Amino acid sequence: IRTGIGCLLVVSGTQFYFYADLYVILPVIYSVICAVGLTGNTAVIYVILKAPKMKTVTNMFILNLAIADDLFTLVLPINIAEHLLHYWPFGEVLCKVILSIDHYNIFSSIYFLTVMSIDRYLVVLATVRSKRMPYRTYRAAKIISFCVWVLVILIVMPFTVFAGVYVNPNDGRKSCVLSFPIPESLWFKASRIYTLIMGFAIPVSTICILYTMMLYKLRNMRLNSNAKALDKAKKKVTIMVFIVLAVCLFCWTPFHLSTIVALTTDLKTTPLLIGISYFITSLSYANSCLNPFLYAFLDDSFRKAFKKMLECRPA
C-alpha cells in the first residue's frame, strides 16, 4: 500500500491499471511542477537569506515553508522515474527517504502555516491592546521553526519505519510502499486516520479558531474605537498569510477528503476514479510551486528585494 501523496489508490492483488494518456501526461505535469517549484522556492530562500530587510519573523516562517517545498520538488524526479519505469529501482534506503519526504510535504506546510496564523493572531491582539511584543524576535522565530521541524519528523517517523521495498511474488516487480503488519487493512485505515487528524483536522481547526477570534477582535475594535486595528504594513502581511493559507487549503482539502471517502466507502477502481485520484495528487503537488508567486504578487518588500538581487551592478 502506497499512502503518501504519490498515490491515493489501493491496488489489490496482482492487477495493475495502466493508461497511455496518464503515462505521458503525468510526467509532464510533475516535471512542470518540479521546475517551477524548484526555481521559485530557491529564489525565495535566496532573497530571504541575502536581503537584510527580509529578516523578519514572518519571513523566517516563509523561509522554512520554502525549504519544505524545495525539499519535496528536489525528489519529485524520482517519483517521475518510478512512474515511467513502472517499478522501483532505487533500493530500500532511498525508498524510506522518498516516502518520508512525501509525508513531510503533507505535514510541514500546514504546520508552518499554523505557526504563521498564531503569529498573526498575536500581532493583531497586541495591536488591539496597544502593547509591544518584545519576545517576538527573529531568533525566537528560528527556535520555533526548529521545533516545528522536530515535531514533523516525530509525526512522520511511523511512516519511515514502515516504508520499504515490496517484491511481487508473481512477477518480481519491486514497489516502494508502506508495508504494514497483519491485518494490513486495519493498519492502512489507522494510518489514514492518523494523517487526517494530525495533518488536517487539528491544524486546520486551530487556524479557523484563530482567524475567527482575530476577526471578532478587529470587528469589536472598529465598533468601539476610532483607531485603526492595524497599520498598512501589518494589514498587508496578515492578508498575505491568509491568502497563502487559503491556497494551501484549496490544494490539500481534496486529498484529505479522499481519505474520508476511502475510509467510509468501498469504491471500485474505475478509469474515472483513477483520473480523479491523479488530479487530486497533482493538485496537492502544485501547492509546492504556488507560494513564491503569491509572495511576488502580495509582498512589496519581497518583490523589491528580488529585483535588487537581479540588478547588474558595474564592477
UniProtKB/TrEMBL annotation:
GO terms for molecular function: neuropeptide binding; neuropeptide receptor activity. Its main location: membrane. The keyword RNA-binding does not apply. Belongs to the G-protein coupled receptor 1 family. PANTHER family: NEUROPEPTIDES B_W RECEPTOR TYPE 2, NEUROPEPTIDES RECEPTOR. It is found in: Cell membrane. Residues 40-295 form the G-protein coupled receptors family 1 profile domain. Gene3D superfamilies: Rhodopsin 7-helix transmembrane proteins. It is a multi-pass membrane protein. Keywords: Cell membrane, Disulfide bond, G-protein coupled receptor, Glycoprotein, Membrane, Receptor, Transducer, Transmembrane, Transmembrane helix. This is G-protein coupled receptors family 1 profile domain-containing protein. It comes from the Eukaryota. Pfam families: 7tm_1. The chain crosses the membrane at residues 22-49, 61-80, 106-128, 140-167, 193-216, 237-255, 275-298. GO terms for cellular component: neuron projection; plasma membrane.
